[in-house]
Structures are given as C-alpha cells and as structure tokens.
Amino acid sequence: MKTAKIQDLNEGDILARPITDSYGRVLLQKGVKFTNRIIQRLADFQFKYVYVQDELTEDIYPQDLLDDQIRFETIHYIRESFRAFNEQPTNLKRNQYILEKSLKEVQKKVGEINEIIQDNEEILSIMSDLFLYDDYVYMHSLNVTVYSLALANELNYPKHKIEQIGIGALLHDLGKTQVPKSILNKPGKLTDLEFSIIKEHTIYGYDLLKHANLPNEVKYCVVQHHERLNGSGYPYGLVGPNIHPYAQILAVTDVFDAVTTNRVYRPGLLPHEGLEILYSGSGELFLPEYVDLFRRNISIYPNGAEVELSNGAKGIICEQNKHLPDRPKVRILENEEGKLHKSQVYEINLATTLDVMITQCNVSSFNG
Fold first, then answer.
1. Which structural domain range is residue 24 located in?
2. Long-range contacts of 180-188 (CB under 8 A, 24+ apart)
3. Are residues 203 and 244 in the same domain?
4. Is residue 301 part of a domain?
5. pLDDT tens digits for 227-269?
6. 10 Å Cβ neighbour count for 153?
7. Is residue 62 in some structural domain?
8. Is the separation of the CB atoms in 127 and 143 below 8 Å?
9. Are residues 116 and 215 in the same domain?
10. Do residues 273 and 343 both lie within one domain?
11. Disulfide check for 268: which of 20, 84, 210, 367 has CB 3.0–4.6 Å away?
12. Within this chain, do residues 132 and 187 fall inside the same structural domain, yes or no?
C-alpha cells in the first residue's frame, strides 16, 4: 500500500487502511472505493492523506507502535480525566474523586505503553491521520506520552522514573480544561490577551493536580513543560538547570507533536520540518542531547510515503533503518526517464548508498 494526498485521490481508488474516530468506531472500512463525495468529506475533516491499495506496493505496510485497542482505551481515560474538570470545574471534591479513579487507569496504560516501547526494536512511528479525533488535546497528550517514554528510555532512566515522565506527559495539558474553547480552537491569530490566557494552562494544570496522589515530578512536568533553557518560556521564565529534567523532555516532545499536527488555524509540518524547528532551538530552547536522541529514534519518512531522491528517482518508503531515520530503504517506481515497468522496479538502501538523499516527501503519517 502507499499514501495518497486527499487532493490526489481519484474515484475508484481503494482504501487500504480503515479510518476511525476517537471512540474506535469505523468511519470508512478497508476496501471502500472512493467517490467524489467521500473524497470531499475527508477534505472537509482536514485529513491530509490516506493509504490506498497499489499493485507495486501491496507488500509495504505502515508501522504503528500502538494497536487500536490500547490507543482508544488510553484516549478514553485521558478524556475522563480531563472531563472531570470540564463539566463541573467548581465541584472540586467530585472532580478529585473522578480524577483519582481515572489516574489509576492512566498509570496502568502508561506502564503498558512503556512495555511496548521497550519491546519495540524498530524505529518509532505513530499513525495519526487515519483517525478522526473529537478534540485535538486528547490525541496530542497520547502522542507526547509515547514520544516522552521513548526518549526517557533512550536516556536510560529507571522504570519508575520513566513511568512518572509518561504520566506527566499524559496530563501535561490538563490545565487547558480551564481555557475557553473559543480561544483554544480559534482559527485566526490570538490577541495578546488571548495568548496570556492560554499560557495560564500550566498553572491551572498544576493547581488541579496539587492535591492528587501523584509524585511531585509529575506535577513539575505539567507546570514546566513550556519553560525554555534561555529563560524565554513560561510561566516562571526558569533558566537551564532550574527546569526539571522531565519537563525538558516534554519541551522537546510537546513542540514536535504540536508543529507536526494539523490544527484549525494551520496545517501540520512534515516530520523533517518539525525536527528543523527543534534543531533551530537546540542549545537555546532545548537540551541538544535530547534533540539528538529524539531525532535518532523517530520515523521521519514513514513506510508508504512518496519521496523524491537527489538522483531524480521517485519511489515509496518500504523499510526503516534503525537509528538512521533520514536514510530508509526506498522502492524506486520512477526514474529520470519515466515510470518503471513492474519488472524494472528496484529498491535502494539509503543507509549504504550515501551519495543519494531524499529531497522531498509528499505526505507523512505524523500529521494528525
């Protein structure tokens, strides 16, 4: 299978992977033939791409670290934790009871996800665009959790600390329950006043968790994940060593997922573009060690993505190279002379063919 931009779909193309909502309900079943009406609906819901069946790439499968069951179960408990404060923000005792109940399940899910990451020998890849989410913040919280757990494992933290980081990541945006949705989802540029309200979510989140039965390290993740090395962050403008190491992990993973995800006010960047943002702030905003480790362990060009190479060839990403995310294996379908016949198709391993590089990637599984 291969990826196809929504605007490049044709009537009669066949869906290779189902599309679901955040409750696990199937919206489009695998095998559905696209019509103009379906294509338009996908565009209306701001999907960037889908996987379609293709004879020359039928043996290529996208990587996805999490299966649907653990994804939807985790999102459910994130939603429950957040809604405790969305629905009755003034009933603190009731909210605290609901939160404590949800937190027990959240902690279990963090442990399960961490085991999956530790058992995973492939490069980290998260599928987002094939799911329709009713609220960006839930999926963002899950993605940041996966990225943060992976980075914490690379830093060789002990298990209990890794899981603290994971819980902090799941809850890092809890304070956004206290920010008006009209501001959170505003399609245009925020006013100075609106941005100042948004920035308060770190304090709100800390206050909501202040009395929760959680390690202080988790609460530091919530209140400090927008702090930056040079003191330009918020809410306190902390500098370098005054920022908790866990929060510095979240600073990297939160920014990456935020900029590579589609929002109502702007399209998401491709993964390599998101990494460029991290590198532009490396040393000033983010710890260089964390940025480097993160880059080496995530899928920049996911399986099934269409790419162009520096030698003029075009093809599909068919396999990843561990710790070399920018140099995967590519199945070449077209060269400078035109499209290749099925018998002429070949593969190139960019990890060993060092004089060739990817110059363009048309779509990406990281844009949610």
1. 2-57
2. 184/137, 185/136, 185/264, 186/264, 186/265, 187/264, 187/265, 188/265
3. yes
4. no
5. 999 999 999 999 999 999 999 999 999 999 999 887 766 667 7
6. 18
7. no
8. no
9. yes
10. no
11. 367
12. yes
Q: Assess if residue 6 is contained within a domain.
A: yes
**C-alpha angle with apex 18: 132 to 123, nearest 5 degrees?**
85
What is the 8-class DSSP label of residue 34?
Answer: P
pLDDT band at residue 221, thresholds of 50, 70 and 90? very high
| Residue 264 DSSP code | T
Supply the angle between the helices 245-259 and 288-296 in degrees, to the nearest 10: 50
22: its two tokens: 């955040």
pLDDT tens per residue, range 47-74: 777 889 988 888 888 777 777 788 888 8
Same domain assignment for residues 256 and 326: no
The last residue of a domain, from among 296, 316, 348: 296
Distances, alpha carbon 12 to alpha carbons 156, 306, 342, in Å: 49, 20, 21
Helix (H, G, I), strand (E, B) or coil at 281: coil
Strand duo 314-319 + 306-309: pairing: antiparallel
pLDDT exceeds 60 at position 89: no
Least confident of 73-82, 237-246, 285-294, 351-360: 73-82
Q: Which three-class secondary structure string do you get for 9-26? A: CCCCCEECCCEEECCCCE
Confidence band for 166, pLDDT divided at 50, 70 and 90: very high
Give the chain's domain count.
Answer: 3
Helix ranges, the chain (H): 36-44, 68-87, 92-119, 136-154, 159-170, 181-184, 192-199, 201-209, 216-224, 245-259, 271-280, 288-296
- Fill in the amino acid letter for 72: F
Q: What is the pLDDT of residues 16-52, one digit of tens each?
A: 888 877 677 788 889 999 999 999 988 887 777 788 9
Can you read off the two tokens belonging to residue 142? 């899950």
Percent of the chain with pLDDT over 70: 90
Q: Is 250 in contact with 278 (CB distance < 8 Å)?
A: no
Does one domain contain both 119 and 11? no
What pLDDT does residue 90 have? 57
Count the Cβ atoms, other than its own, within 10 Å of residue 103.
21
- Among 246, 270, 296, identify where a domain stops: 296
CATH of residue 39's domain is 3.90.105.10
- Check whether residue 82 and residue 126 sit in a common domain: yes
